[in-house]
Every structure is written in structure tokens, then in C-alpha cells.
Amino acid sequence: MAQYDIWAVNPTSDDDYFHTSATIAASGSIALLANDVGQYGTGYKVSITSDGADANKTFTIAGDKTALIGAGSKITVSGSTGNDGDYKVVSSTLTGGDTVITVAETIADATVDGSVARIRKPYLYLGNVVTGSFTSDITFLDHFTAKSGSRVKDRSVVQEIAISVNITMDEPDVQNMNFFMLGGDITTTAGPPSKKTFAPYTVLERNGGAKIGGVSDTGNEWIWTCTKSTLKPDGEFSFNDQDWSQFSFILDVLQDEDNVNEPFGSLSHYGTDQDIEK
């Protein structure tokens, strides 16, 4: 439901302005009586200040979560009186210190309760990694004291953390080429011949969770799950008719402020002979 201000178009008198306190659905209409328009009768069109598109379609949560919940993402509501379910986000804005989330679906119940969580997309398998390594670039700030005469270091604290994973791959399927070329949505055209198409260098950030696994027939096996990261193309994409084409990415592991206990994800170590999921 929404409240509208309505006025006559091109009025010839101030009497032609009026305000209605009626409430109507976003897709509804309101009938105007003859004496609603004023002393000049009913021969005027009306203009509506709002189309009601956002009516009953917003959730409000505390804090600034606009970077995490953006247009096109999905949220799930739980623990509410009558709004549990999944919703597609149209927009999110910061208003008075709170995040106002506008969704595509109509919110059925006006009761203010429940919790909102972002729905993470399932992981995409990117294929074989030819070589991989990760770098922990940690800067320490040292403290020195000279209480006893000599200047000695008595404390060293972490000042800066930058974690990156370097991966070289050799399976240039359309999804990997899309990631490497920062492409937009992939569309499929039926053939013959069928093809998949995307616009390169139109999505300049590729953010999300990541799962990196080290698997072996005889050695130690582990999986590192990161809840927040950025995937960036690195270097050249080689065309080679004598060997597999290779291309590289840098995965920057970012601090997830919403995950207080595991801000840089978690690593599960399985030891040997576990045959973990590949």
C-alpha cells in the first residue's frame, strides 16, 4: 500500500490542488469524485507522485551492509512472523546508519522481526591447477625500549596483512576465459553451430568466496575455504599449438568483517590417505 499526493494538471485555480490520504496497492488505482478536483469540475487529468514500486518491498537491517548486499544478489529471511523465504535484491542504500534493502518480491507481513542473511552462490569448479602457491605478506611494527640503557626490541605486532594465492591453469573453457577477460553474462545461441558469447572487460571486479584444495594420492591433503576474496587475471594468456594453453590468476584473500571468528576463512587439513573430494 502507498499514499499518494495528487494534483490537477495545468490547474486554473489553487482550488484545483488537493491531497488524498487514501492508500492503494502499487498496481491499483483510485477513483476521483467530481468534488475532489475543485470548483472547476472533473475535466482534468491527474498526476501521481509515486508509482508505488517500492511499497511493501523493503527490509531494514542495522549497519552498513551495502557492499555485501547489492543489486542482483539474493537474501534469505528466517525467524520472522510471515516473511521467511528467499528474495532477490533490487537495491540497497544506507539510510541513517541502517541498510535499506529493496527486493523484487512483495513482503507479505509488516511485523518487524526475523533475521536477514546473504545467500552465497554455489562454488564453480575452475579446473586443473598446473602450479599454485600462496603468499602471506605480513608487515610487523616493532617496538623498542631503552629502559635498561641499551635499546632493545620488546614487542612486535602485526601492522598489515595481505594474502594472495597465485594459480596457473590450463583449461580455457568459456567460464575461465570469461573470468580471465573480466567478462559479462554468458549467453548461449543455439546452432548449428551453437556458441557461447560474452562481452570482455565489462565486469571489472570478480568478488566472492573461494575454495582452494591441495589433493594428492600419497601426500597431505587440505582445503582452504575463504568467505571473501577477489579473483584477478594475471599476465598473459598463451596460445600454444604444441602444449596446453596456460593462463594465471591472483586470488586476493580479503578480511570478512562479518565472520569474526574466521575473518580469512578456515583451513581443513586431512593428512594422508583420506581421499577427500576433488
Q: Could you please describe the fold and organization of this structure?
A:
This protein has helices spanning 34-37, 174-180; strands at 2-3, 6-8, 23-24, 46-48, 58-62, 74-78, 85-95, 98-103, 115-119, 129-145, 152-169, 187-189, 195-197, 207-214, 221-234, 247-253, 266-271. It has 278 residues and is mainly beta. The chain is globular and about 70 Å long. The protein is built from two helices and 17 strands. β14 and β15 (221-234) form a beta hairpin. It starts with a strand and ends in a 7-residue tail after the last strand. Strands 10, 11, 14, 15, 16 and 17 form a six-stranded antiparallel beta sheet that branches. The chain has a five-stranded antiparallel beta sheet with strand order 5-8-7-6-9, with no helix packed on it. Strands 1-3 form a two-stranded antiparallel sheet.
Instruction: Write down the overall mean pLDDT.
Output: 78
Number of helices: 2
Q: Can you tell me the residue ranges where pLDDT is under 50 for at least 5 consecutive residues? A: 1-11, 13-54
Q: Helices and strands: which structural class?
A: mainly beta
Distance between the termini: 51 Å
Cα shape: globular
Main beta-sheet annotation: 6 strands, antiparallel
- Helix content range of the residues, please? under 10%
How much strand?
Answer: 35-45%
**Strand-and-helix sequence, N→C?**
EEEHEEEEEEEEHEEEEEE
